[in-house]
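FAQ: What does the model actually see?

It sees only this:
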Amino acid sequence: MSAGGFVARFNAIAAEQGRAGLTPAACLDGWRRFVDDLAEGYYDEEWADELDNDYWIRRFLGRVIVDSVVRAEATWYVAEVEAIDVRFREIWRTSSRGADTPRE
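And it is asked to produce this:
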């Protein structure tokens, strides 16, 4: 499958999830921004509900990166998501929220 094939598969998953119009790059940027905001302390106890709402992007990316076609044809994309995940886990682990993970 070509890079265009990956984008087509991504688009199909997005459409299945009711998120047509998303792009792979926009989702990576959104997940990265979310983690940056978390690192800057944007989400404190007052924003717990907002955190769950904004975490949608990782839930969506989770559906994308477990797809067998994506895993086989876009390992670079899976690696990018997982690299952001590493940063997220470190920030989350050391935050005041501790092990209280956003709802899946």
